[in-house]
Amino acid sequence: MAAPAVTARQAPTGRMLEDGFSSVYAFSRDPNVNLWEKTVTPVGIDGGDAIDVTTMHNDNWRTFAPRTLRTLTEGSFTAAYDPICYNEILQMINIEQAITQHLPDGSSVAFYGYLRVFEPNELSEGEHPEATVTIQPTNRDPTTGAEEAPVVTLVAGT
């Protein structure tokens, strides 16, 4: 096989996000949970560690192969909260459901997952009380157990 060919970088054809405002998460079990997002980390995509396929037949280089399966990485946000959210969180923690990440341009990523962590930050005078919320994607329909990919909905121009 021939050596890899050089590929020139081309200008992207899409439209980049220009501002991180406003981005929110919506939980299907409680779309109006009493949390007000302040900072948001969207879910990501991870291909996993490389598989070392080096053998005694290699001469100069270790060789690697990509994995087949992908991982939707956890998302999180910091939020202001109403203490009533403790009751709401108790009804959602570790319960698989559809979760939608709404991005600033109107695009969205919907996936199955669960609210894994609700952790209030330290309370102090003169500071806005906040909590950190962590969301764990599962990529499986909680009703059927079937593997389900995230659904990306783009707005016009992206």
CATH fold assignment: Elongation Factor Tu (Ef-tu), domain 3
Distance N to C terminus: 37 Å
Q: Structurally, how many domains make up the residues?
A: 1
Low-pLDDT residue intervals, each spanning 5 or more residues: none
Helical fraction = under 10%
Gyration radius, in Å: 21 Å
Determine the number of helices (DSSP H or I, runs of at least 4 residues).
Answer: 1
Major β-sheet annotation: 7 strands, antiparallel
- The CATH class is identified as Mainly Beta
Q: Into which percentage range does the β-strand content fall? A: 25-35%
Element order, helices and strands? EEEEEEEHEEEE
Shape: elongated
Instruction: Summarize model confidence as the mean pLDDT.
Output: 96
Derived structural class: mainly beta
CATH architecture: Beta Barrel
- Write down how many β-strands occur, each being a DSSP E stretch of 2 or more residues: 11
In short:
By secondary structure, the protein is mainly beta. The protein has one helix at 85-92; strands spanning 24-27, 35-41, 45-46, 51-52, 64-65, 71-72, 75-81, 97-102, 108-120, 131-137, 151-153. The chain starts with 23 loop residues before the first strand and ends in a 5-residue tail after the last strand.
